Amino acid sequence: MENSKEMRKWLDDMALPHPLVIAGPCSAETEDQVLKIAHNLKDTDVNYYRAGIWKPRTRPGNFEGVGAIGLKWLQKVKDETGLKTATEVANRAHVDLALEHDVDLLWIGARSTVSPFIVQEIADALEGTDKIVLIKNPVNPDLSLWLGAVERLYSADIKNLGVIHRGFSTYEKTKYRNIPEWQLAIELQSKFPDLPIINDPSHITGKRDMIFDVSQTALDLNFDGLMIETHYDPDNAWSDAAQQVTPQRLVQIMNDLRIRKETDEEAEYNSKLNNLRAQIDVIDNQLIDTLGKRMKVSDGIGKLKKQRNVAVLQSNRWNAILGKMILEGESQGLSEEFVLRMFKAIHQESINHQEKIINK
Ligand code: PEP
Ligand code: MN
Hints:
By secondary structure, the protein is an alpha/beta fold.
């Protein structure tokens, strides 16, 4: 499959002065709740009103969505506010019902993108549609699964396409609910520069106070839009309470975000520069993260050495590491001098950590 401008026509035709905004509650709960939030969002930058009708819950027994009745509420939203509507579909029956109720944008959730069978079923059910279809990244950090889903839909003659980056699950404890792994989104953008990419900071962070920063990073990386879960009473939401923001807070976030527009040559230069800088920022964060992890491992070695009463510095081991890293560095275009200086600094920090443990 080739990159195609056709995929982003739906977005370009909207000629938005700001990134695309999809907002609304994680789940449709009651008719009043759906309509009240929609009215709150009516005269804002919001372009599509989202509400989950069928909720894919990892464990059974949680609220699993109101089902088809909620689609009637979304129709009312459209009639009363003029907002276009969006919901998640996870099988053929969902697609048929959503189309019957004239939902404008359908998205495939992270738990569905992992399954080529389900993606194919949805693609077949949607064949030839002119609705907008967005594909969330799979739960696991697997770029080909994500691309494969795009290809399945594109081959089913669905041309109004896009993807949603909602982060990836990990066994590690991090400050995120789903770690962004920005480099995967960047790789996808470089393969398909015209495929619209929307960021979902709500599911990445899992916490409402981190949403602004993640949204800003996404815009700096040239994302085309944001999907932000919004509820008038977030704390009492029936799902994803910790990550939803109020409509007022959403308006504030949209006001405060630095939004870059590519109008002339200078803007394009700035945009490219910002994009590269954002990539550097992502990598720098990963460097610090990795170094922190290395020192924790080092602490573990310090504890072992203390039990055994062994000296901190073991120079044969150190020389072996250095030799290997100089070769690795060479294959990455790093000079021997740089690798030596960097590893001396890392080694010194490691020794400091271990000495602290041994002298405790
Ligand atoms: C959602 O958007 O409410 C949702 C369930 O998201 P995800 O598929 O990203 O978990
Ligand atoms: Mn949610």
